[in-house]
Please model this.
Amino acid sequence: MFHVGGARTALFNWLFVRRHGGTFVLRIEDTDNTRNHPEWTDMIYRSFEWLGLDWDDTYPQSRNLDAHRETALKLHADGHTYYCDCTPDALQKRKAAASIKTPGYDSFCSDRDLSAAPGRALRFRVPEQGTLTRADVIRGTTDIDVSTIEDFVILRGDGSPLYLLANAHDDVLDGITHVSRSAEHLSNTEKQILLRRAMGHQEPVWAHVPMIVNEKGKKLSKRHDKVALEDYRDEGYISEAMLNYLATLGWSPPSEYADEQASLDTMTQAFAFEDVTSSSAQFDVKKLASFNGDYIRRMSTEAYLERSFTWLRTTVVDRIAPLLQERAERLPDTFAMVDFLVHADPVMDLDSWQSVMAKDPPASIAMLEAASAAYADADLAWTASALKEATEAAGASLGLKLNKAQAPVRVAVAGRRVGPPLFESLELLGRMRTLARVERALDRLRPA
RNA sequence: GCCCCCAUCGUCUAGUGGCCUAGGACACCACCCUUUCAAGGUGGCGGCACGGGUUCGAAUCCCGUUGGGGGUGCCA
Model:
């Protein structure tokens, strides 16, 4: 999954680097071992490729792990850190007892002079008082009272580095001059400044770009919003339009360009962090769609055809072709069998609706509700086999065998009784679209 | 709670003290074009959160209020 917000930040960074002839390094921040998957990293690369953002170099942050530890130890030798064996629990109790309400760690171990031992984390000793100036090209300058900054951990109890340390180290190593990231990182900046100073380095130029938020004004979340770039790609948005739309979220080309629709080249000539807005932006799919339509219309017919067929193959047909082939008698059957995967909504076959749904609405409703509940479970892996099990179980709870249980789901989702195997189809269709279609069928079934 | 951030049409934005009767884009509405639907054209609806300052003059600067958001992890 590659987050659209990440894509926008990446774009701004790329634009800046390309404009000023810098080097674009794609550093994969993988310091948390528990949340690393090779496929995720691969997805990031493929997303960059799709967007057309190239990189000069790339490496996983874990490559520098030894250097991170060394740096931490050096910091320790210089008296900038101390070891800590507090558990979150103990900390909480202590703070409750003393009714301390300031957030973060209470510096309990600060003067205990603990030595290194397994399970002991290494904390950075933040000065007790003083102010620190945080300068940001997008947000301006703020004086921060350092007493509000907690002594933060830079090495876990198992000796592994945290990203604050790893980033500060690698940024120096890579000669990073500008750090631009999402505004949610704003409050990490002070810590990083402190860390870099302790390491004896100057700070870079900071640029915290506004967050992208949903209709409710909250930051886009994987759970509630459609945030995966690949999903937009699979729905037929083209990368140029996506890139251009993303850029308008917080930035607009200077007035001499007169048009918010601008190519990557044009944006590269014009982009500056100073021009980025400081307030968060709502992601508006309708405007994206409008941009997308404009871009499609501007293509040559040849390019349009090429892109459309490529999309059809790669996102739909390729993934299910053998299953279609088994059932096909003539070539157009291929498309008749996948049309429900292509259309925003399935075309409802009346016969199918009558014979499956309308015959016994309460039973259909019960089954669809059971299926819907099962599919909505975030723990359910969205794979054909897991979906089969879930559907089987949902049917069993109503005393239905799988062949009966699957029928209403199939009609709700595909609009027809016949077609390619259901669970492979659901997997392709995705959780969001499946749930939406089941919901729509339920609306239609329920008495008004 | 504490720290921090933000505040121009429903949404994205232009605006950096007079060019603002606040401009553009998406969405919406109407009309035109049109065998349909789009596209296109024309027009319309609609906004500086509020209250105080500063100034000859404030959307623009300052303060406060209100509202929204982020952080508050041995995640990134």
